[in-house]
Automatic annotation (TrEMBL):
Gene3D superfamilies: Vaccinia Virus protein VP39 (3.40.50.150)
Enzyme Commission identifier(s): 2.1.1.-
Annotated SUPFAM superfamilies: S-adenosyl-L-methionine-dependent methyltransferases
Family affiliation: Belongs to the methyltransferase superfamily. METL family.
Function: S-adenosyl-L-methionine-dependent methyltransferase.
InterPro entries: METTL2/6/8-like, SAM-dependent_MTases_sf
Enzyme class (EC, first level): transferase
GO biological process: methylation
Protein name: tRNA N(3)-methylcytidine methyltransferase
Keywords, in A-Z order: Methyltransferase, Transferase
Domain of life: Eukaryota
Length: 316
């Protein structure tokens, strides 16, 4: 996508806020809400979701990504990216296309999603993909990340083992999990926990978690990053069109909603994002609303989309 074709300031968020907060039909979105202390299973609904959308046509490649995060192109050779919640690969694909020297570790809580992303990436014409694209199954909101992610030697061992799995036709997530466990044991024995990843991308992932799980999940991301590393964030913003479409009975918390298929969606204000990431130890570099107008081709209606864009750095 050419730069001239992408816009992020089609309207002012404050104008939208005033309009929404003064419209009685939207008043239920603003009411206080006391969520349940228990949180339902979050990975299974997404596994079912990716099974239903196995063709991959539901998602479009996020071609704007390298414009928003040019650091993924200008980084040093063999920089490591951890893509959290990779889905079907709509974020991974432009990163691998845009930089032939970057190494991507992609994880998801859904085994269905991991099968889809491998199909998508290996069907592409990306150079040397077998040496710089690696997947593993992980629900970072529950168990955190495997400890080998924070260790350069263990990353190399994992990559070599995974390539062998692909060459013998297996490459299953169960194998990845076993490898992760063995590398974790090795890591503890050798005390070689140095390095980590240079980038973590959280692209429309955090909003799928319940708000109460977000702080610990972000700290898990912090723990596997190199000092000076960047966390690149993009997710649903407060008063986005999709938020205003939710009916009252879909609310499961303040600014939290559950779809009919059991998947969740949270809508972020800038203050909430700032509190979450700074509270986890990050330094805020960029944080703003992206406000984009688009037209529904079927009915001709204008749609006002709101996303939150952020860049956060782990202190050196």
């Amino acid at each position: 996508m050419k730069k001239a074709q992408y816009f992020s300031k089609d309207f002012e968020w404050d104008d939208l806020r005033v309009e929404v907060e003064n419209d009685p039909s939207f008043s239920y979105h603003l009411l206080p809400f006391q969520p349940s202390l228990s949180v339902a299973e979050e990975s299974q609904p997404w596994n079912d979701f990716h099974h239903r959308h196995a063709s991959g046509k539901f998602f479009k490649e996020r071609r704007y990504l390298l414009q928003e995060f040019p650091e993924l192109v200008s980084c040093e050779e063999n920089s490591k990216v951890l893509e959290v919640g990779c889905g079907n690969g709509s974020t991974v694909l432009p990163i691998l296309r845009g930089n032939e020297n970057v190494i991507v570790y992609a994880c998801d809580c859904s085994t269905e999603a991991l099968e889809r992303v491998k199909e998508t990436i290996y069907a592409s014409d990306i150079v040397s993909i077998e040496h710089r694209f690696h997947t593993f199954c992980c629900d970072f909101s529950m168990s955190g990340f495997p400890t080998w992610l924070a260790c350069n030697p263990c990353q190399a061992n994992f990559s070599q083992t995974q390539q062998q799995c692909y060459s013998d036709g297996r490459g299953k997530n169960e194998t990845h999990l076993n490898n992760s466990h063995s590398h974790s044991q090795s890591l503890k024995e050798r005390r070689c926990c140095i390095g980590g990843v240079d980038f973590v991308t959280l692209i429309f992932t955090l909003s799928a978690l319940s708000l109460q799980r977000m702080p610990k999940s972000i700290k898990k991301c912090f723990s596997v990053m190199k000092p000076g590393g960047l966390l690149l964030f993009r997710d649903y913003g407060l008063y986005d069109m999709s938020m205003l479409r939710f009916e009252m009975d879909k609310r499961v918390g303040f600014r939290e909603y559950m779809r009919s298929d059991g998947t969740r969606s949270y809508f972020f204000s800038l203050d909430t994002v700032r509190d979450l990431f700074v509270g986890a130890g990050f330094i805020e570099l960029e944080l703003e609303y992206c406000c984009v107008k688009s037209v529904n081709r079927r009915n001709g209606k204008n749609m006002r989309r709101v996303w939150v864009h952020g860049k956060f750095q782990k202190p050196v």
